[in-house]
Automatic annotation (TrEMBL):
Keywords: Transferase. Residues 1-43 are annotated as: Disordered. It comes from the Bacteria. Signal peptide: none annotated. CDD domains: Ferritin_like. This is Rhamnosyltransferase. Residues 20-37 have a biased composition (Basic and acidic residues). It comes from Hypericibacter terrae. One of its GO terms (molecular function) is transferase activity. The keyword Transferase applies. InterPro entries: DUF455, Ferritin-like_SF, UCP012318.
Length: 239
């Protein structure tokens, strides 16, 4: 898809995307509350479980990037919007491939373990509003990844799994850019609608996000992506 878009072979049109993306029969999808708790990275089984969970997130991230392109043609977004989200989808596919390859090296495969459907629930919740989609998916869900990934990398290094840590390092750096893309287009759309970005984001998170923003926050990475600490701190779960 990315190559076709960049070569000019994939036009922008009007589509009727499905409510849900196509999925293989595995993994078994469960509610988030029914998932077993992950327990660090101290043994091979736990590392496989961690990488499997991250691969599932990246698979959903591919679909979310594609869905934002197909779901909102009526928004009349400029070509650069499409350039950005095609690029995000392409990088998310790379991340899924890196994690799948590493799982195979450890004796696992995507689909071996159950996974939850929480990410696509966020897509369904925001399917009728581009601004809400931008507010929730990149600026809450992907931003959360910036908070938790450095600890995962540290845990893998302490377990002497440098290969897996290196994979997460690549993903972490590129996810900063993905959050930044979400922030840029959120600000663009707020300007078009004459909305105050801080007020609009807070209202949309309260309305559409099923949960709370959980500190501690990785302020360095979040600020690098263009996020404003006062805005997300105002919505944080009490310490």
């Amino acid at each position: 898809m990315a190559t076709a878009w960049r070569d000019g072979a994939l036009p922008v049109g009007i589509a009727a995307p499905p409510d849900r993306p196509a999925r293989p029969t595995r993994p078994e999808l469960r509610r988030p509350g029914d998932m077993p708790k992950r327990r660090g990275a101290g043994n091979p089984e736990n590392r496989i479980a961690l990488l499997h969970a991250l691969a599932h997130i990246e698979l959903n991230a591919i679909d979310l990037a594609c869905d934002i392109l197909a779901r909102f043609p009526q928004a009349g977004m400029p070509r650069h919007f499409h350039d950005d989200w095609v690029s995000v989808a392409d990088e998310e596919a790379k991340h899924f491939g890196l994690l799948s390859d590493r799982l195979a090296e450890l004796g696992g495969a995507y689909g071996d373990l159950p996974a939850h459907d929480g990410l696509w629930q966020a897509a369904e919740e925001t399917a009728g509003n581009l601004l809400a989609r931008l507010a929730i998916v990149p600026l809450v869900l992907e931003a959360r990844g910036l908070d938790v990934t450095p600890k995962m990398i540290g845990d893998l290094k302490r377990a002497d799994d440098e290969k897996s840590a290196a994979v997460l390092g690549v993903i972490y750096e590129e996810e900063i850019g993905h959050v930044g893309i979400g922030r840029r287009w959120f600000l663009f759309e707020c300007e078009r609608r004459a909305l105050d970005p801080a007020q609009a984001w807070g209202a949309l998170v309260r309305k559409h996000f099923r949960g709370t923003l959980k500190p501690p926050f990785n302020d360095e990475a979040r600020v690098a992506a263009g996020l404003v600490p006062a805005e997300y701190a105002a919505l944080a779960e009490p310490a």
